């Protein structure tokens, strides 16, 4: 094969590195499709992302809302957001505002 001794592949900043060494665009992660071929883009981190609560966030700043499309949510509902910054080993998060209201929450980062 022509891939022998190619060295380590580094994915572009807006891509996810699959366990098998391949690269896929980050927006394809946690979409319930095996885009990597080894299912590493659908890991256990995605478990809570398949419903209406949670998701993948890749922007350097912005707003995370729940519920995303208005309406209310259940008491004690747990949401998981994966915040991914390509090409850096650590992320610093600054909470600019956190607005917790009855039935609707907004986090500005």
UniProtKB/TrEMBL annotation:
Residue ranges annotated for the CUB domain, each copy included: 53-109
Keywords annotated in UniProt: Disulfide bond
Pfam families: CUB (PF00431), Ldl_recept_a (PF00057)
Keyword Glycosyltransferase: no
PROSITE patterns: CUB (PS01180), LDLRA_1 (PS01209), LDLRA_2 (PS50068)
SUPFAM superfamilies per the UniProt record, alphabetical: LDL receptor-like module, Spermadhesin, CUB domain
Disulphide linkage map: 11-23, 18-36
Record's protein name: CUB domain-containing protein
Organism the protein comes from: Meganyctiphanes norvegica (Northern krill)
């Amino acid at each position: 094969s022509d891939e022998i001794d190619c060295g380590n592949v580094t994915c572009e900043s807006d891509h996810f590195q699959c366990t098998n060494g391949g690269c896929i665009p980050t927006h394809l992660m946690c979409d319930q499709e095996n885009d990597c071929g080894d299912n590493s883009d659908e890991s256990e981190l995605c478990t809570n992302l398949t419903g209406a609560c949670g998701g993948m966030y890749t922007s350097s700043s912005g707003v995370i809302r729940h519920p995303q499309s208005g309406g209310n949510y259940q008491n004690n509902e747990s949401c998981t957001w994966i915040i991914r910054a390509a090409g850096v080993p650590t992320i610093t998060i600054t909470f600019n505002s956190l607005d917790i209201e009855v039935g609707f929450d907004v986090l500005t980062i």
